[in-house]
Amino acid sequence: ALSSRNQRLDEKSREHAVLIYRALKLGKKTFEENPRSIPEEIVEIVTDVISSGSQNRVEYVDIVDPDSLNRIADFMDIKKIIIGVGVFTGMVRLIDNIECER
């Protein structure tokens, strides 16, 4: 994510913040390539990747409908989602999201 918040990150925190995008891309790949994936699986994957950075503390990982922004509990007949995250990296709160489509 390119934002003014990223400018407040020190070098070590920047290295750990990169994990946010990596986690979102992996969550997207899981949703798009695995028709049997479930929301809990994607939340766990994204959380685990982000948390592997010692500077990162996950505030939330949400999977929502792109039109209503309501949380999605089941992928039955779902073709599009947004995976959104809030993460503290060091003392800076970062938010990001990615759209996914099967």
Please work out how many helical segments DSSP would assign: 2
Round the Cα radius of gyration to an integer and report it: 14 Å
Principal-axes shape call: elongated
Q: Spans of 5+ residues with little confidence (pLDDT < 50)?
A: none
Record field, number of beta strands: 3
Distance between the termini: 24 Å
Question: What string gives the helices and strands in order?
Answer: HHEEE
* Structural class by helix and strand composition: alpha+beta
Helical residue percent? 25-40%
Overall average pLDDT: 93
- Binned strand content: 25-35%
Largest beta-sheet characterization = 3 strands, antiparallel
Spatial strand arrangement across the major sheet:
1-2-3
Task: Describe this protein's structure.
- The chain is α+β, with helices and mostly antiparallel strands and 102 residues long.
- Strands 1-2-3 form a 3-stranded antiparallel sheet, with helices on one face.
- The relative contact order is 0.24.
- The mean pLDDT is 93.
Characterize this entry briefly.
The chain is α+β, with helices and mostly antiparallel strands and 102 residues long.
